[in-house]
Amino acid sequence: MSGKPRLTYLNGRGRMEPVRWLLAAAGVEFEEVFLQTKEQYEKLIKDGLLLFQQVPLVEIDGMKMVQTRAILSYIAGKYNLYGKDLKERALIDMYVEGISDLMQMILMFPFSPPDAKEKNLDSIKEKAINRYFPVFEKVLKQHGQDFLVGNKFSWADVQLIEAILAVEEKIPAVLSGFPQLQAFKTKMSNMPTIKKFLQPGSPRKPPPDDHYVETVLKVFKK
């Protein structure tokens, strides 16, 4: 095995996509193993690789890590993307948790019944415009800095640019009332490591399609 982190998940975004984003933003190359069958997933459980019988699984620094939040915290700390002290870390945690609440809605959207999709999309739009994006617009405006915390690139910035782009895929004009976030998006998208991740052929996964939904249900359904 090489020294690269090894990511085991499906060939799609899901709960692994923020991990891919954070590693890519830190300039870290990684390997991926894609689950395609229920048998592969059950073998991971049988072999004792999944502490709570759940993926994502990330093998890094001799550890077999599960639980997305723990994985992201470790990567952020390892690559100096987690603030300079406890107060900055607490701010990053608050912002990340808020963004994760919004991303959870986006994560579940492809699994919506057909007759609920329009309602769920309206809910994502309403929450993004009225609850989540105003927070970050205000933070950036008040401190007048390029980054969310400590005027330094952090995990919170990575999560926010991922969320902005994910929401824009569904609601293209969602940032029309948020000039600070528009500027933030432009700046983040042009950072060398993120710009590379946004290019075709990178490990970034496309929006979930019907095939991805079918694979999720096939691999994980009881």
From TrEMBL:
UniProt keywords (A-Z) are: Transferase
Q: Name one GO biological process term.
A: glutathione metabolic process
Q: Which InterPro entries match?
A: Glutathione-S-Trfase_C-like, Glutathione-S-Trfase_C_sf, Glutathione_S-Trfase, Glutathione_S-Trfase_N, GST_alpha, GST_C, GST_superfamily, Thioredoxin-like_sf
Domain GST C-terminal residues, every copy: 85-209
Q: Which GO terms describe its molecular function?
A: glutathione transferase activity
Matching entries from Pfam families are given as: GST_C_3, GST_N
Enzyme Commission no: 2.5.1.18
Q: Where is the GST N-terminal domain?
A: 3-83
- Gene3D superfamilies in alphabetical order: 1.20.1050.10, Glutaredoxin (3.40.30.10)
Entry keyword Transmembrane helix: no
Q: Which family does it belong to?
A: Belongs to the GST superfamily. Alpha family.
Name of the featured protein: glutathione transferase
Q: Give the organism's phylogenetic lineage.
A: Eukaryota, Metazoa, Chordata, Craniata, Vertebrata
